[in-house]
Amino acid sequence: MATGPAPSGGRPREQRPHLSKMERVVVSMQDPDQGVKMRSQRLLITVVPHAVAGGDVVEWLIQKFCIPQEEALHLGTLLVQHGYLYPLRDPGILVLRPDETPYRFQTPYFWTSTLWPAAEMDYAIYLAKKNMRKHGALLDHEKERYVQLHKRINHAWDLVLMQAREQLRAAKRRRKGDRLVIACQEQTFWLVNRPPPGAPNVLEQGPERGCCTASPVQMTKSLDFYKREIERYRKALGRARVKSSVCLEAYLQYSVQHRLHDPILSGCLPGNPWITDNAAYWAVNSPTAAAPTKLRVERWAFSFQELLEDPLGRAHFMDFLGKEFSAENLSFWEACEELRYGGQAQVPALADAAYQQFLAPGAARWVNIDSRTMERTLEGLRQPHRYVLDDAQLHIYMLMKKDSYPRFLKSDLYKGLLAEAGIPLEMKRRVFPFPRKPWHSSPSPAVLPTSGEPMVAGGPGDGDKVA
Amino acid sequence: MATDGLHENETLASLKMEAESLKGKLEEERAKLHDVELHQVAERVEALGQFVMKTRRTLKGHGNKVLCMDWCKDKRRIVSSSQDGKVIVWDSFTTNKEHAVTMPCTWVMACAYAPSGCAIACGGLDNKCSVYPLTFDKNENMAAKKKSVAMHTNYLSACSFTNSDMQILTASGDGTCALWDVESGQLLQSFHGHGADVLCLDLAPSETGNTFVSGGCDKKAMVWDMRSGQCVQAFETHESDINSVRYYPSGDAFASGSDDATCRLYDLRADREVAIYSKESIIFGASSVDFSLSGRLLFAGYNDYTINVWDVLKGARVSILFGHENRVSTLRVSPDGTAFCSGSWDHTLRVWA
C-alpha cells in the first residue's frame, strides 16, 4: 500500500501529530546527559558507534514516563515500527527486544514525518542495489515486487539500474562502518514505507480528511463563516454560566450515588454475564421482570428521568398517577414524545390525536396546562409540526417532576416495592472440569412473534435465586 | 475586479480579527467563574481500588479493519462495520453472527443499531446513510430492503438514531450534521458551523431532550439545538482533530478524544473545559471514548493499539489494556454498563469486563 503524499497545501493542519511527539522522545533519548546510555557496538569486525541496547531503551522509558514494563516495551516497539530506531543485527524485522540487542537512532533525513513520497522509482533503485550487491539477497516478497516494478516502469529501467550502480559505487568509497549504518538506515526506511506482507503498515491512514476545505474557498463563503462565528461568540458572551465549584460538585454526587450501580466498578448480582458466562443478570433485570431488584427500585429515586427511562419504573409510576387521577399527564407526555420522534408523514395525525385526546375543550383526558401555554399550543396546532407540543410537554413534565414524583417516592406503593425488592444471590462461577454449557442464546428483538419461527429458549441459568 | 478583491480581503481580515478578539474575551469570561479544579474537588472521593478488566469475548469474522460498532438495547447484540464494506450483526454473548450485509462501498465508518433492535443504519465513503431492516427470513435478501436515507457531499463519519427508529442524525466530511426522516429520506434539519470535516456526534441524555454534540477536524466541539439548527455552545481547546465525543451520563458534560493524544471533559453549565486526561507516554491519538455507567471511569481507545482507563474525577490513569494488534477505532460501553466493546484495525472486536 503506497504511503500518502506530503501534506497537501491549503490548510496548515498538522497531520499525524504523533510523529512529531515520537521525534521529541527520540531526541530526548539521544541527550548526552539524560538520554539512553550509548555504546559502541562490535559487529563482526566492524565497530559501530552510538548504539543502544534494547533493554536500556525500555529501562529509560520506564524511568522517564513512570510507566510499567509492559507499556514501556509497547511504546519502544512502536518507535521501532515507525522507523525511529533500527536493530543493527537482523535489520529485516522491526521489533524491540528488551535485552542486549543493539539499536541505533534513525537519521532525521529518513524520519517518517518527512513523509517522502517514497516513489516507485526510489523503491526500484533500492531493490536493484540489493540485488546487485549480493545475488539472491532479495526476499520472496521483494522479488515479486521487483518483477512488478520492472513491468510498471519498464521504460525507465535503464535509469533505475544506472542509479543503482552509481549509488553502490559511491557507497564503496565510504568506510565499512558508515556503509553498514547507511544500509541499515535505508533498509529501515523501506521496511516502514513498504512493509513486508503480514507486518503492520504504520503509515496507513483512514480516508483523507480536511480536503473539503483544502482548496481555496470563495470569498463570500469565508465571510459568512466568520460572520457566523462572530455572532456565535457574541451570544456566548451573553450566556449565563455556573461556578465551577457547583458544577464539579455535581459530578461527585452523581458518581457516588451511582457507584454501586456501576457493574464495572462494583460488580453486579447474581454476576456479570460476561464474566460468569451466565445471562441470569439480564433475565433478573429484564424490562418486564415481575420482581425488580433492590438496586433497580432504588434507582427510581435518583431522578425523575431515571424513573421514566426504566419501563418498569414508568409503569409503576403510571399506576400511582392513576390512583391520583392524573395519569393523563404521563400519557400526554408519551404522546408528545411519539410526535417528536415520529415519522414525518405521521406528524399531522399524531398532533391531531394528541389534541383530540388531551387538549381539546371537553377532551376525554384533558391535561391541565396554564392558559398562556395552552393558547400558544392551540395556535401552533393550526400548522402542526413535530415540535408544536414542546411547550405543553415541558409544562406537564415539570408538573410531574416537581409534584407527582416526590409524592410517588413517599407513597406506600413505592415503599412497598422497595420493601419487596430483593438482592439476587451471587452465582458461583462454574469450576473446571465441569463441561461448559453452551452460552444461552436469546431471541433477537428483530424476530417478531408472528414470524412462525419457534422462539429460542432464553431462560435464566441455574442458581439465579433472589433473596 | 481588482479593487473589489482588495476590499473583500480587508473585510475578511477584519472579520477574522474581530472573531479572534471576541474569542479572547469569551475565554476571559469563562475563566472568571472557574474557582476550583476538578481534581481538587475530587480529593474528597475514595481512590479506586485495583482494577482488572480482561477480554471476555473476541469476535472474529471481519476480513478487514473494523471501523465502527454500536450496541443493541438488549445489551448483548452489536452491529459492526468494516473497511471492506461488510456490516455484521452479532450476538456478542454467544459470538454468533446473526446477519451480514455487504455495502456497495468501502470504509463503512459509521453504523448504528435502531432503538427497537429491528434495523441498523450504516454508511461511509458512499456519502450516504442507509437503513437495513433486520430479518430472519432466509428467503429475504437484506440488501433488497435497503433504504437510502441521508445524502451528504462527502463521506459519512457518524450516524445515530434518535429516540425512535424513525429519525437519524448524521455527521459528514462535508462539514455538516443533519437530521433525517427515515421513512421518506427527507432532510429535517441541517447543522452548519464546523469549519472542516465533522467526525463524531452524540445525542444528549437530557430529560427535556433535543441537543447533541459534534466534534470535527476544526478542533471544535459544538453543541446543537436539534430543533432550530443553531449551535448553542462551542469549545475550542483541543490541538488536533476531535475523533470522538460522548456525554457524561447526567448530560451535564461531555468527553472528547482527539488526535492530540488527550481526552478532555467539558462542562455545559460552567461552559468550559474542566479536565484533561493525558500522559506524556501517550503519544497517539484517542480514537473513541465512552463512560462507565456511573461516569467515574472513562474508557478511551487509542491509535497505539491500547485502551486507557481514566478516573474521570481524579484525572489519573487507572489502567492500560493491551490486546489489540492494531489501532483501536471504536469503543462503546454496553447499555447496562456490564462491559464495553472495542473494535480495531486488527479485524476483531473484543468485549471487556
From TrEMBL, chain A:
Region of interest called Disordered, as start-end residue ranges on this chain: 1-21, 439-467
GO biological process terms, semicolon-separated: G protein-coupled receptor signaling pathway; intracellular signal transduction; negative regulation of signal transduction; regulation of G protein-coupled receptor signaling pathway
Keywords assigned by UniProt, alphabetized: Signal transduction inhibitor
GO cellular-component term (any): protein-containing complex
Molecular-function annotations in GO: G-protein beta-subunit binding; GTPase activator activity; GTPase activity
UniProt-listed Gene3D superfamilies: 1.10.1240.60, Regulator of G-protein Signalling 4, domain 2, Transducin (heterotrimeric G protein), gamma chain, Winged helix-like DNA-binding domain superfamily/Winged helix DNA-binding domain
Source domain of life: Eukaryota
InterPro entries found in the cross-reference section: DEP_dom, G-protein_gamma-like_dom, GGL_sf, RGS, RGS6/7/9/11, RGS6/7/9/11_DHEX_sf, RGS_DHEX, RGS_sf
Annotated Basic and acidic residues bias: 11-21
Domain DEP as annotated: residue spans: 32-107
Domain RGS residue range list: 303-418
UniProt-listed SMART domains: DEP, G_gamma, GGL, RGS
Protein name: Regulator of G protein signaling 11
Native source organism of the sequence: Microcebus murinus
TrEMBL record, chain B:
GO BP annotation list: signal transduction
TM segment ranges: none
PROSITE patterns: WD_REPEATS_1, WD_REPEATS_2, WD_REPEATS_REGION
WD repeat ranges per the UniProt record: 59-91, 149-190, 191-234, 235-276, 288-320, 321-353
Pfam families linked to this entry: WD40_Gbeta
InterPro entries, alphabetized: G-protein_beta_1-5, WD40/YVTN_repeat-like_dom_sf, WD40_G-protein_beta-like, WD40_PAC1, WD40_repeat_CS, WD40_repeat_dom_sf, WD40_rpt
CDD domains: WD40
Domain of life: Eukaryota
Keywords: Coiled coil, Repeat, Transducer, WD repeat
Repeat among keywords: yes
SMART domains named among the record's database cross-references: WD40
Biological role: Enhances GTPase-activating protein (GAP) activity of regulator of G protein signaling (RGS) proteins, such as RGS7 and RGS9, hence involved in the termination of the signaling initiated by the G protein coupled receptors (GPCRs) by accelerating the GTP hydrolysis on the G-alpha subunits, thereby promoting their inactivation. Increases RGS7 GTPase-activating protein (GAP) activity, thereby regulating mood and cognition. Increases RGS9 GTPase-activating protein (GAP) activity, hence contributes to the deactivation of G protein signaling initiated by D(2) dopamine receptors.
Family statement drawn from the similarity comment of this UniProt entry: Belongs to the WD repeat G protein beta family.
Protein name: Guanine nucleotide-binding protein subunit beta-5
Species whose genome carries this gene: Microcebus murinus (Gray mouse lemur)
Gene: GNB5
